[in-house]
Write a structure and sequence with these properties.
There is one protein chain. It contains 10 helices and 3 strands. It is mainly α. It folds into 2 domains: about 70 residues, Multidrug-efflux Transporter Regulator, Chain: A, Domain 2 (Orthogonal Bundle), CATH 1.10.1660; about 120 residues, Multidrug-efflux Transporter Regulator, Chain: A, Domain 2. The chain has a 3-stranded antiparallel sheet. Helix 3 packs parallel to helix 10 and helix 9 runs antiparallel to helix 10. The mean pLDDT is about 85.
């Protein structure tokens, strides 16, 4: 399916100037020109425009940062849950201009191979296609501080176990939602991002706060 400019503007709620700017910057595909003065825009432009707006409004990403995501990573905007998961990975590392190889990562942390493998096998650390980002450095430093203080790993293991259960449920719900025809694809994508990136951490953090308040009340 292809859209004329007015249709694309209506579906994406973006201005003509913004759409043309994104095409110029390589964020949107060039339109086809079946006839003189007739420009048709691929249907993929709608979810791409929605994704760009989502990154801008919810994460304050600049156009240059978003452009870097599109230039350095290849992914398709289709109706698969895998696309949503891939997008989450892109978002998580979008602002990392510096990536580290495994050897660089270990050297920066003064971490030995055995400790690294233990963290990786337990599901505390993950390696991306590009290697390790500043987020992995931050997480690894927290793990090393916890280890130095003799923290019981049962809490971290519980994080991993719960995360795996949630991941399975998210995958099932996400796949079902994206196959539904009850709303537009971009609306379903936006809901999935909000569930995973906003609602989930909010619920987790607020239950932690509530448990803390309950413990204080018990001690009074």
């Amino acid at each position: 399916m292809a859209y004329k400019m007015k249709e694309l503007m209506s579906l994406s709620d973006e201005s003509k100037s913004t759409i043309l700017y994104y095409i110029k910057e390589g964020l949107l595909p060039e339109p086809s020109k079946p006839k003189p003065n007739v420009h048709l825009y691929d249907e993929r432009c709608v979810p791409i425009l929605k994704f760009i707006k989502y990154l801008q409004h919810n994460f304050s990403y600049s156009i240059s940062e978003i452009k870097s995501i599109f230039q350095n990573n290849h992914f398709d905007f289709d109706d698969s849950f895998e696309m949503m998961v891939r997008s989450l990975e892109l978002i998580s590392g979008a602002r990392d201009n510096q990536w580290y190889s495994k050897s660089e990562f270990l050297e920066l942390l003064s971490m030995d191979e055995e400790t690294f493998e233990m963290y990786r096998k337990k599901g505390y650390l993950f390696e991306h296609a590009k290697g390790f980002s500043s987020k992995e450095l931050e997480v690894a430093e927290i793990l090393m501080r916890a280890n130095a203080l003799g923290l019981d790993c049962s809490l971290l293991d519980a994080y991993v176990a719960d995360a795996k259960v949630l991941a399975e449920k998210e995958n099932a719900v996400g796949s079902k939602l994206l196959k539904s025809n009850e709303s537009s694809l971009d609306t379903r994508y936006e809901l999935l991002f909000d569930l995973v990136l906003t609602l989930k951490p909010y619920i987790f953090n607020m239950h932690t706060v509530e448990a803390h308040h309950n413990n204080i009340r018990k001690d009074l």
